[in-house]
Amino acid sequence: MHDTSDAAVPADPALRSPHIEEAAARVGAAHGTEPSQGSPERMELYQRVFDYTPDGLLVVDAAGCIVRANTQAERLFGYGAEELAGVTVETLIPQRYRAGHVAHRRDYLAEPRMRPMGKDLELFGLRRDGSEFPVDIMLGPVEGGEHPKILCVVRDITERKQTERELTTLREKEVLLKEIHHRVKNNLAVISSLFYLQSTYTEDENTIRILRECRDRVRSMALVHERLYRSENFAAVDFGEYARDLSEQLVRNLGDPARPVALRTRLASVPMSIGLAVPCGLILNELITNALKHAFPSGAGDGTIEVSIQRESDGVCHLTVADTGVGVPENVGGEDAHSLGLRLIRTLTRQIDGEFELAPAHPGTAARLKVKVDA
Ligand SMILES: Nc1ncnc2c1ncn2[C@@H]1O[C@H](COP(=O)(O)OP(=O)(O)O)[C@@H](O)[C@H]1O
Ligand SMILES: [Mg+2]
Q: Does residue 128 sit in the same domain as residue 69?
């Protein structure tokens, strides 16, 4: 066997494989030299390629006996220096594949050419300690010498297999998440329909109104899941796009088609996690609903509702719903609000560590929410 520390190694004609030859030629070209065929220089180059290549190299004779192995091969299979020479190559293969391998080796020798071993099969190496590891193996005939030999290039693909497994798990999780958002959205749609069905069983205007508001709240949550389901990113929704969908949906459902209110939007793209998007969506739902419901009691005229979302560089997000309507009565809007909508807004604002204010806007009302965005 060779000595890896010795540069002036005796040339071994058995190593003149097309693979090594080509590599050696490339090394030579890179150095601007082209050692002549069979020269000591060239042989030294072969030796170096043999020793320094990151893959395990084994030269095997026709009887399956390992003639040479590089340090990487010894290390891969857990053997010490020189210990692989003379060992049959089947020693490095798990027991269950050994018989088959002897036959394959014979077939290969009948038609030797450079090719991967067991294409499309999972191959395993067997370490000295009995453990197995996945490998890719290239086979090539080694020319020269009296007897045919085979060069085996063995690559440990444990890490690649691990990465492939992790990717598969990740893809499966993504599919699962998508499925969950889809189901949550559908379940919320069922709840929303139940509210509607229930409302058809009463004539009482107030009950119908309450049920419709509940329905809108559920829908505003369903819309978050729908956005997450549709986007390829299951971690965050673009709250700007969400706000556009929600405001258009509410204007369509609650606005008076005979006296439509003009909706203006100024929506920056703000990615938000689901944990933040749901409460923010519910708050936005209350604010737009209020503007549509209370701001223009005698028709919108040329009144407008403006929904705006801005994001500062420090991640603070400003969400504003401003209308040009009649303005809030003096006794509402304080911290001690008793009506459900404003109470909901206060509770949700606390939950997301935000700040909320409802202020007169001459004309109309401006409701502002300030919150630090996480995503
Ligand atoms: N944009 C607005 N313009 C005028 N009045 C408003 C507006 N928003 C809220 N208000 C007033 O504040 C009150 C409380 O709102 P809210 O808590 O949402 O209860 P609700 O909408 O169920 O009446 C409303 O009844 C309304 O008088
Ligand atoms: Mg309200």
A: yes
